Amino acid sequence: MKKWAVSILTFTLVGGLLAGCGGAKTEPAGGSAPAASNGTAASGGSGASASLSGKKIALVTQLNIGTFSAQYIDGVKEQTEKLGGKVTVFNSENDLAKMSSNLDAAINQKFDGILIDHGTAEALEAGVKKALEKKIPVVAFDATLQVPGVTNLEQGDQKMAEQTLEQLAKDAGGKGNIVKIWVAGFAPMERRQLAYKAFQDKYKDIKEVAAFGAATNNTALDTQAQMEAILKKYPNKGDITAVWAAWDEFAKGASRAIQQAGRTEIKVYGIDMSDEELQLIQDPNSPWVASAAVDPKDIGRIQVRYLYQKLHGDTTPDTVVLEPVFVSREALPKDKAVSTDQLSQYVKGWGGSQQGYTDWLKELENSAKK
């Protein structure tokens, strides 16, 4: 996603993003660790401890809003600190020109490695090439960069969309009227839209009666206001069966509008999830009943692991696909609230991913503790 202060029009002017990296080498979730590219990289933990201690890592983000972004950054910091490094976050406040400048600043300040969170190829490609020329490794999350040498992480966006849309269709009995909340101009959104189009072709009796979406500084609040207007346009029970929201900030806003309007017959299906969203899904009075997501902390942790592999000289894949899980209210306990840290007790596959770990990384963690 994981994961926006300008309008769809602005993103169109900046340039739409391509949906995925064709022809790239891909490592699926749960794949084995890459082989070392040379004898030094294969030397093991003691050498890594000496050469990789105290690394300065830059995290250049497009925008930090919501608890998903906060937990993603927590994962980045946690894993880096476990490896004896330190993270500096450059928040670009959804200004792509500022993001480009932040990337240049990270290069000029001679950070040892750079992590990128979202952004466009148009804004970032020149800076990324400059970083690589200066031997600064780069690992990106949902940035659609197709620069040789950069490893790109993505969440399995089409699968997340398929999981939530299939559940929507099942719950609706294969027919009904739905609202889609989605925004163009972001790589994960474009991939999720591919699944949505396939869903429309498959379920002809499920009709889209409204579609909207804008990424702003107050996405959830703005979505709530837009959803309130749609509810007034379709005031009768049965006018709207469900809402499909392609981002957790969208789902939050729509859920609040529906709940406040007392339209409890409308169900919300979302994508992405953090502690705040999990609380809404557990609330029996909330219309948000299910979401598909990757643990945002895991995204940050895995991204750092691949960056350190690059720092170590290992060969890394061009694309790493993270495996999402489907979380429904039915799978959660009804007698107590749980956090994302506890979710693995109830939802198989959530959190604690070992993806990107190598034996020498674990040894480096142990050395950093001492």
Automatic annotation (TrEMBL):
Q: Which residues form the signal peptide?
A: 1-19
The keyword Signal belongs to this UniProt entry's keyword annotation: yes
Q: Which UniProt keywords apply?
A: Signal
Q: Does the keyword Signal apply?
A: yes
Q: Which InterPro entries match?
A: Bact_Solute-Bind_Prot2, Peripla_BP_I, SBP_2_dom
Q: Residue ranges of the Periplasmic binding protein domain? A: 61-313
Similarity remark: Belongs to the bacterial solute-binding protein 2 family.
Q: What is the scientific name of the source organism? A: Paenibacillus chartarius
| SUPFAM superfamilies registered for this protein in UniProt | Periplasmic binding protein-like I (SSF53822)
Q: Which residues form a coiled coil?
A: none
Q: What's this protein's name?
A: Sugar ABC transporter substrate-binding protein
Matching PANTHER family, A to Z? ABC TRANSPORTER PERIPLASMIC-BINDING PROTEIN YPHF (PTHR30036:SF7), D-XYLOSE-BINDING PERIPLASMIC PROTEIN (PTHR30036)
UniProt subcellular location: Cell envelope
Write down the CDD domains for this protein, in alphabetical order.
PBP1_methylthioribose_binding-like
| Major localization class | other
